[in-house]
Every structure is written in C-alpha cells, then in structure tokens.
Amino acid sequence: MNRRKALKNLGILTGGMILLPSCDFSEEKVTLILNKLQITAKQEDLVKEIVTTIIPEGEIPGANALEVHNFVWVMVDDCLPKEKQDSFMNGLKLFDKKAKVISGNSFIKLSENKRITVLKDLLKVNLEKDDQGKKSNMEDIQSFLKTTKYYTGWGFLQSKYVMTEIMPYPLVPGTYGTCETIETNKRINING
C-alpha cells in the first residue's frame, strides 16, 4: 500500500468528520449571532416589524433606520436572566399566532393601523392564572411585548443619531466660572 496516499485519504476523512457536525442543513438559518439566543430570520424580521411599529419613520428616522431591533436582541441576550430570555423567546413564538387570531393575518402582513391595534389589544388583556397557579401563554406574550417596547425606547434614545443630532450632549458646556443663557428654542440634553 502507498503510505502517502493512505495518509492523504486519512487527512481528508478526518477533515470531513470535523466539518460534518458543524454543517446545518435545516431551513431556518441563524442570521444574527448572539451569545445565548438562537434566532431565525423570521423571528428577526418579526421583531424588526414590531420595533418599526413602536417607533415609525417620520420627520426623523425611526427605529428601523437606526437599527434599534439589533439593540433589542443584544440587550435580551446579554442583560436578561435565563428565565426571562426563555419567556421572551416563548412570547415571540406565540405572538404571531395570537396576532393571526386577533386580526386574521400574520403581523408582518398587516397595515400599520392594524399592527398598532393588535399591539394595544395584546397589552390590554387581563392575565389570569389557571387552577394550579401556572402562568398562561399571554404572560409570555406580554412579557415579550413589554421587554421589546422598553428596549426599543432605550435603544432609540441612546442611538448615535438622537445623541448627536436631536439632543446633542456637550461634554463641557462652557468655560469654568461663566454663565450661559439657555435659549427657549434650543434643545438641551437632560441626560448629561
């Protein structure tokens, strides 16, 4: 037997065995790489549409243009404990099904007014626990919506555009010991 050929074939076989487990042939591909969460393109698009509905485009760029949905994903992945992440992901999975029940169509296919109505309706639902004290699916959906709404507002207000164009924050407002008159039409950053 030729030793070089045997070693070459063994190397190819070993490389193939190493690569095979990392190959994922499923239909749902992970589009955003996070530390703990595994999300699909459909889930990312749904959160993007919810965030866009919460802060739409107008005179200033909305949440979609500022890519606030990425901020939401990173904050959920990095800052929430495991049980809240599980509740968030479960609420995300159940949200579109519930939106179909309420409106008759998928959330992404709805008009902007219908989307607002669906979000308001889902946030207004009274939560009731069953006889064993277990939480209902609506708790996960509302937890998902409240978390998304909270991180959307936070991400929007902390975006580069808002912090530089709308509410600029001067590091040093003036020289030491002088007073500055604030004009009534001038926007000031109260977070400083």
3D structure, described in words:
The longest helix is centred in the middle third of the chain and has 22 residues, at 82-103. The protein has one domain (29-166). With 192 residues, the protein is mainly alpha-helical. Strands 1-2 form a two-stranded antiparallel sheet. It has helices at 3-19, 41-54, 68-79, 82-103, 112-124, 137-157, 160-166; strands at 30-33, 38-40.
| Euclidean distance between termini CA atoms | 76 Å
Strands ordered across the widest β-sheet? 1-2
Shape: extended
How much helical structure, as a percent, in the residues?
55-70%
Radius of gyration, taken over Cα atoms and rounded to an integer in Å: 24 Å
Provide the low-confidence segments as ranges: none
Please trace the helix and strand order, writing H or E for each element.
HEEHHHHHH
Number of strands: 2
What are its keywords?
192 residues; mainly alpha; two-stranded antiparallel sheet; 2 strands; 55% helix
SSE map:
Layout (H helix, E strand, L loop, with lengths): L2 H17 L10 E4 L4 E3 H14 L13 H12 L2 H22 L8 H13 L12 H21 L2 H7 L26
Helix pairs in contact: 3-6, 4-5, 4-6
Concise synopsis of the structure shown:
This protein has helices at 3-19, 41-54, 68-79, 82-103, 112-124, 137-157, 160-166; strands spanning 30-33, 38-40.
